[in-house]
Design brief:
- The chain has seven helices and no strands.
- It is mainly alpha-helical.
- The chain has one domain.
- The two termini are 23 Å apart.
Length: 154
């Protein structure tokens, strides 16, 4: 049986590396008990190992972990897309400056800005698809009930 945690990890693993690192860094900074250095070259390995260590403590911990990961990811993805909401205006301004100055660095920055926005938008769409299918409150609760039907986790 694929657990909600497994679904999250599968989704997370499909993200482009840069965005996986960004998301992991923000989750690690907000998730209590995480002790990872986002500047270490093995950061993603350390992050994944710590998540797995929490998960292996038991179903109660896995339940709490998936609730935290879902909430934090929702918040981070929403904020990234909100932060990027004015990208079209900023890109247009940069494009105008490129026309006036011929600056390659500004042209590169404008292209990177558009790429960043489109990537976070796509990640947001992928997140909503996951959250609305395998990470709904009902799916998570059904999983919890299946692994510990006679106990109350909360």
């Amino acid at each position: 049986m694929t657990t909600p945690y497994d679904s999250f990890i599968e989704w997370f693993g499909k993200l482009p590396l840069k965005y996986r690192q960004d998301l992991a860094s923000e989750i690690a900074s907000l998730l209590p008990g995480m002790d990872v250095n986002p500047y270490h070259r093995k950061f993603l390995d350390d992050f994944s190992a710590q998540l797995e260590a929490i998960r292996k403590k038991g179903h109660r911990e896995e339940y709490g972990l998936i609730l935290c990961l879902k909430t934090l990811t929702e918040h981070i993805v929403t904020e990234k897309n909100r932060d990027n909401s004015g990208w079209e205006k900023e890109k247009a301004e940069l494009d105008e400056m490129v026309k006036m100055t011929g600056s390659c660095s500004m042209a590169t920055h404008a292209s990177e800005l558009a790429m960043q926005y489109s990537q976070w938008k796509a990640i947001g769409d992928m997140w909503q698809e996951l959250a609305n299918s395998t990470l709904t409150p009902q799916v998570i609760e059904n999983w919890r009930q299946s692994v510990s039907p006679s106990t109350h986790i909360l």
